[in-house]
Amino acid sequence: MRTTLAYLLLALSTLHAAIAPDHIRRLQEEAAEALVIKADQVDVKITELKDGRRLDVQVTASVQSVIRSKAGHKPGDVVKVVYKVMDLKNPPPGPGEAKVLAKGETVRAYLDHSSDKQSLRLAAYGDSFQNP
Questions:
Q1: In this predicted structure, what is the pLDDT of residue 69?
Q2: CB-side exposure of 95: number of CA atoms within 13 Å?
């Protein structure tokens, strides 16, 4: 009985665990684009949900500097970053949500190419944007 209770407590304690820092670091290192960007325009579409809301975010940003770029981005290029943020009352376990960038905000961004090749998407969940 004690063993069963111990396993149950262990399982419940890890239910809301974040992704391991090593995994986040690997996602950042494997991102196709590691850029310092400045948000020039931020558009947010809010959809109300039963238990919160979904924010569809589209950022038009200028590249300030390049850490690495598979697409060959250079400072001065303009990129489009598209992502969603789930703002829920009771968020499910898993990685944290990315923040909604503010117009004029500068961040180091870890990004991958979207399937349509017209925009970029987050490569490391809520850790895709860091202070430069």
A1: 98
A2: 17
